[in-house]
Amino acid sequence: MLEKVDLNRKMEKKEYKKRMDELQPKLSRLQRDCKEKKIPILIVFEGLGAAGKGTLINGLIEPLDPRGFQVYTTAVETKEEKMKPFLWRFWTRIPSAGRIAIFDRSWYRRVLVDRFDGLTSPEQLDYAFGEIASFEKQLTDDGAVIIKFFGHISKHEQHKRFEKLRSEKKTAWRVTKADLERNKQYDKYLHMNEEMLEKTDFEYAPWHILECTDRQYAIAKMTEIVVSALEQALAEREHIPAEENGEEKAERQELATSVLAGVDLSKTMDKETYRKELAHLQKRLGELHNELYKYRIPVVLAFEGWDAGGKGGAIKRLTQALDPRGYAVHPVSSPTEEEKMHQYLWRFWKNFPKDGHVAIFDRSWYGRVMVERIEGFCTTEEWKRAYHEINEMEEQLAMHGTIVIKFWMHIDKDEQERRFKERQENPEKQWKITDEDWRNRAKWDEYVTAVDEMLLRTSTTYAPWVIVEADSKYYARIKVLKTVVEAIEARLER
Question: How far apart are CA 463 and CA 408, in angstroms?
């Protein structure tokens, strides 16, 4: 999902100064409070080369008392470090109670740079991820706060920054051959970072993505996140809920990582092109459905999106091409009394397909982190935990050989209103619009927050989210069909 993050977020100088004038005194006070409460803090900076980790760290430490923190730069292991277990050099640098340790690169090196360079084998990789999980869990269980940042920039922006550094004698040394090679193979390295994020985005130590194209925006967002995390940690020590006023909440949301903000909803398709593409893709999907059965490959397709986003229309064009004996559509609504008596994923496990069949979910298990989160049908602890639970479930499906694709049907607020009114005025479509649809619309901004977090935390290499630009129904239906066809073809070519 990193490639879907809107990297064009910016902050004007005046707004930046205003934010930092508010945030820096808070951060300074929180450092003192955490020292008093003896809370150890680890702040980790990872990300793409030239994203500006040094600038971020400088921005972070500016309001801090230098006697209370230590910055560690993680480079290639020394001769002594190579003679110790890999995590030794990090265990020996964890902060004492009340202090802050800041890591410029960290224990993630082995699953990123070393992996890219071929120094970490596939067998070592699996162990390394397990080692990281254990390390961070032990620290947080003991009361430490871990805040992890991933600095993200585009391939073009990275190349531009490398060239600028290389053009000046005093900074040229900072760009290595390895940096240039990772830029050359940007997509490959980004994929490795995607895997790292999805495997180590723990509830107790989550990742925070920083859009680093604009340095002022990145620093303000980073500072806001650190302030929020430390406030939360202190509130938990006092067993009181963390509070924020409406203005603080609005400012926090302004700095949230967004996928939806970068979606181009102007994409469209004319009727003639749509008809040609539809006929071609449906014919091909029908052929592939036979291949799925022949090679016993199961498929799970989950559709989420805004009310009136076009889920039903997209599903209909899919099923028109399939043998009815080989697929099932599962409309998902509120859980029944029996379903409420079980763990929330139970009702979905019941409907996963056997080998060679297709299961299509109209709404899905993602209700846990959207409607249930927003309406208070589950606790905060439950929906935060659900990201990891869902990822694990989907990984189990993928490990079995299932093709898992998740679609978010995205429309803008004006288009949704237009479609709602069209349904109200058409007697044949009035059944599609309910009072609940209008109530949900009133919570649009809350859903945007929830959806962005859902997309970031659960789009994985084995079960990706596909954002469908659905203001144009024709374009959306074709994109869905094409995505499914290409995914099946790619599996059959293995």
Answer: 13
User: Model-level pTM?
Assistant: 0.78
C-alpha closest to that of 39 among 118, 189, 147: 147
Per residue in 383-409, pLDDT (tens digit) is: 998 998 999 999 999 999 999 999 999
Domain that holds residue 436: 262-492
Domain termination site, one of 240, 257, 274 = 257
CATH number of the domain where residue 426 is located: 3.40.50.300
Q: Directed axis angle between helix 444-458 and helix 380-400, to 10°?
A: 40
Task: Based on the fold, state whether residues 190 and 236 are members of the same structural domain.
Answer: yes
354 and 283 part of one domain: yes
Q: What is the DSSP string of 121-190?
A: -HHHHHHHHHHHHHHHHHHHHTT-EEEEEEEE--HHHHHHHHHHHHTSTTTGGGS-HHHHHHHHTHHHHH
Q: In terms of domains, do 291 and 244 share one? A: no
Q: What distance in Å separates the CA atoms of residue 461 and residue 188, rounded to the nearest whole number?
A: 12
